[in-house]
Structure of Delta(14)-sterol reductase LBR:
Amino acid sequence: MPSRKFADGEVVMGRWPGSVLYYEVQVTSYDDVAHLYTVKYKDGTELALKESDIRSQSSFKHRKSQSSSSSPSRRSSSRSRSRSPGRPAKGRRRSASQSREHKEDKKKTIQETSLALPVLVLFKPSENNTKRYNGEPESTEKNATSCIILEQKLKPDLEIKRVLEQYSLRSRKDDKKKEEIYSEKKTFVAVKPIEKVSTKTKEMEFGGRIGTFTLIFFLPATVFYLLLMCKQDDPSLLNLPPLPALESLWDWRVFGVVLLWFFLQAAFYLLPIGKVVEGLPLSSGRRLQYRINGFYAFILTAAAVGVLLYFEFELHYLYDHLMQFAVSAAAFSLALSIYLYVRSLKAPEEELAPGGNSGYFIYDFFTGHELNPRIGSFDLKYFCELRPGLIGWVVINLAMLLAEMKIHNLSVPSLSMILVNSFQLLYVVDALWNEEAVLTTMDITHDGFGFMLAFGDLVWVPFVYSLQAFYLVGHPTTITWPVAAAITVLNCIGYYIFRSANSQKNNFRRNPADPKLANLKFISTATGKGLLVTGWWGFVRHPNYLGDIIMALAWSLPCGFNHILPYFYVIYFICLLVHREARDEHHCKQKYGLAWERYCQRVPYRIFPYIY
């Protein structure tokens, strides 16, 4: 094995990757396996460089011009007068040589000076460091239209450099060496990406192994408990429902319907309709492609349900067997989770989820070991995120509406049921219409696909989110039109905050220089992204969460105040979003560093203004 050349703590000159400029750096460590030096620049950026990209400081000292070594007598042209007129004057030949040497030494001095004095504005070292904020100007708040490419200001300097190289008087040997330097493939790896790919998950969430093991049993039990409570005449918390017989919880025909529903939605997903977009870059730099056709799948599903109703299919069958449907969906999600974990054991290291690579079976099984499991071009996580559960939620709500009309002999649904169905239908249609926005969420970019998301998408969303409609079937609630109008206004306010905040964020991410966003101000970050400090994102840090919670309250209010059960959703949702906000806070602090701290100082409230 070759021995290392530079010691830890030694101050040397490190070449900035992709350029010919050298910066003063300090060696912090050396990897004997990869033969890479970890060096730290003055601005705090840490990179892993090869030994060929590091030079000692002594090699950058200016060398004295050799053109002055000639004696004064030789530089004098007086002796040329005694020579034959037919011979060229030595003084002239000497002066031409001196001129060449003078130009060459001057050029060397310029080149060495350009190496010793790096032009920092040409490169952005801070963009390679995601743990610490570097390179931020004194005034970090900018308008979206004020982003100017600094390289344009340096065009005159670059042109001078190009001309000097074009008319260089150096030998061909030197030029050949320079070409080799430029043509050599320089590989460098930033410290952060290396850790992201090869290091196990160190910070475990959800209570670690014990917490995730508990949640695997607690989440299904919660769903079954809520459904049993809604069937009670008195759904009080202290009035525990009797446990049903085990054989009554399973029906193979119901399980077949669940499978049919899942594969029907998968068939809609595979249809060659809708645009294809690219997701965010993965750790390897690759971008996955996604087909955006969720809204078309919803239209096709609505048409299929309409056909069933036309042929007098009794959709309220879902109400009578809702517990069996929930058990079948839970069994299917468990089987899917096992499949996902088994296949993830053969997945390459770079395809594993950053938060689900702990090495502990229970934790990785729950959080998801593989980030984007795919069967060909079929993305399992992306498909389950919106299709089966979200569209199934609307179908269950419709079944509850029809069941209410049949059980209570109503010619039209109750006003409370209409409000609940309408509010939640708007929410689902909005999510499917803006399907592309889900590609930037934490579920897609960070969380793996395991039991947590599989059970959440296929069981929790359709059977818990429809709790208000299920409750109203057995516990009808009468509300007046003024109350209904007030609840509708509240839902519209929540929806406006939710949609406008998300649209503002998504438009800014796509094109920060859009003239329509000229009034928005942001704080620059080390990653090159901006943190909005005006608009909704200058009001609270997560205005979309605020809108979500307001809508959740509006969905529960039509159920009245006789029992707390229909308010489980809004209580759970507040806990969920507060926990997710804490996860976001942790990730953003690691990603944006000092810029995130400045953003928090500018926007002190997280979700609820003047409260939290």
Notes: Confidence is low (pLDDT under 50) at residues 62-103, 106-142, 144-198. The radius of gyration is 34 Å. The chain has three domains: 10-57, 205-235+244-478, 479-611. Residues 209 and 361 are 9 Å apart (CA to CA).
